[in-house]
Amino acid sequence: MHQQLTINITSYWHAGTGRTSGSHVDSLVEKDASGLPFLNGRHLKGLLRDAITRANEWGWFDDLPSLEHGQSSLPDWLFGTRPTNTDSDVETRFNTVPGIIAVSNAQLPSADGNLLANAPELRSELYRHIFSTAIDHHSGIAKEKSLRGIEVTIPLSLYAEVECNDSQAEQVFQYLSKAIHLIDHVGGMRNRGLGRAQISLSELSQSNQGGKA
User: Fold this and answer.
1) Would you say 142 and 136 are in contact if contact means Cβ atoms under 8 Å apart?
2) Which of 3, 8, 66, 72 is the most exposed place for a label (fewest CB within 10 A)?
3) Burial level of 60, CB count in 10 A (0-12/13-18/19+)?
4) Which pLDDT tens digit goes with each residue over 145-204?
5) Range of the domain at 22
6) Contacts of 53 (CB under 8 A, 6+ apart)
7) Is residue 77 part of a domain?
């Protein structure tokens, strides 16, 4: 069973890479091979897991299923168990159990993406640079060497695919439909007001595709 995750981002947002542009900005946003913005499926999966965890702890779900495959909690069943603290990659892999939900990267609609991929003059308009500095509270003057710049993406809508092939998939999507209302920001620097978003689930549109995480 598949459904479409619609992410309507209503403010500047930043999905960072950890890379800089040298002396101009300190953090660039992540782009696909065509230079277009997207949200990584693993990031979306983390947001959904956090929302499900909170909703479950607050008693939003009355009809919890019988957990399978050794998972001890609803989030583990849906999204997979987390690795134990270990220095061995091999041991970590064998100590985790995958969840039943897969989430693709969130991308622009196919028609928009194809158009922008071949129009660099339009594609550049998707991004802005914003700057901030720390102010000394005693003097009211900017602190020396505190100026920071980041690249951000303009408000837009992205679409991802959520897949669940479990026999209880219909119930799983009911859980997700309730919990996603707890997600109101996406991307990085959410505590600074970036990435305000409204998220919804609906029937899958064939025009939006992505790679699942």
Assistant:
1) yes
2) 66
3) middle
4) 656 788 999 999 999 999 998 888 999 999 999 999 999 999 988 888 899 999 999 988
5) 2-203
6) 74, 75
7) yes
